[in-house]
Amino acid sequence: MSTLIQPWAFRGQRLVSTRALLTNRAIVATARSLLATFSTLPALHHRIVADFRSDTLTKPTDEMIKEVMLSASRGDDVYEEDDSVRSLEHHVAQLTGHEAGLFCASGTMTNQLAFRASLLTPPASILCDRRSHVYRYEAGGLAAHSQTTVYPVQAIANKGHHITVQDLEREFVVDDGDVHMAPTRLISLENTLDGTVMPLQEVQAIRRFANENKVRLHLDGARIWNAAVAAGCDLKDYTQEFDSVSLCVSKGIGAPIGSVLIGNRGLIKKARHFRKMFGGGWRQAGGLAAAAHWCIDNVWPTMKETHRLAKYLAEGIEREGRGASIYQPVESNMVFLDLAGSGMLLRDLSQKLKGKGIRIGNEDAAESQTQVRLVLHWQISREAVDDFIEVVRDLAEVSVREDRVSSPSEEDDESETNGKKQQTVYCRR
Ligand SMILES: *Cc1c(COP(=O)(O)O)cnc(C)c1O
Question: Structure pTM?
């Protein structure tokens, strides 16, 4: 195993020395002053990307490409001969307390591979939160790839914050020989889900429930990095409770592309086989793996700062927004904003923000759409957040002057979750 880590350890050392060297150059001084309020970031690799639509929109920096990707190994991953890929897989397996890992192109692929490799014999069904990505936003992949049906679970307790054992019990399909049924074979959790963090005790309770009922437990951990940071626990505390975990590196971690599936050797071997069958076997993927590895080691430690900035944005909007509200607790990097009652239109807000180089989702929203999801990531600066709050304040002032502030409307086709009327704000791109 240690031979797998060595090439990377060497590269890591080289990187540090290159960065130390570059730090002395005068050109860095300007970048430094820009970063004064954001000092925990690895300065040389920081770049400002004021895009709040999603944390997938981080951009690889020139340095990441020149220093990290360029020095990656160039072996063939289908031959399992690329050191950077194997080093990343090993690294994530270690961090999560599992035997093996598989680096893939997307989180959809790692989720779908986990299901396909776990659910070998139909008829079968899975249980997951009805808001889950695997159920709603993976193009019906579960039905297509794994011949599986889903029983979506509604979170009822805790104001719908997260599903519980009681919620799962309601939908659980027992394997009792009834030919009408597709027995539950797997439970899939998502953490964070819409930016909210599932408490570790609940995950542990669900693990016990899964054991008692002899079903597998999968985690869509696209943002488990955020959950662990927000909960203040070790990544392992969460991930070791699962049979398989999908972790995105292309979101909060800030890597250009990819997702890692982890589990035991048998599962990963099967997943690798299915990945080839799905056409996802890739060749010289080392550059991408090296970037992901670097980002885990260097960007992940800045995540706490990102979460703090999300809270700061939410507080600023509530303070200056004159009726604009944050309708979900800010627990990690997402802020859910509702303009209803403030008299501001989402379209106007987005136009004004664009003038400052800031982008948000639902840019050409209809007038009835008042809600939007704002996502923060490591390349969003404190300055961009201050600009954001300033735009909200200016727009809110206009709204008050023109007497457009009202009490929130109750119409529209909205669904109820978290005890709040909600519109569809998920950014699907
Ligand atoms: C983004 C995301 C995925 C995977 O998305 P890809 O675009 O396929 O990488 C899976 N689950 C959740 C919760 C996500 O947010």
Answer: 0.87
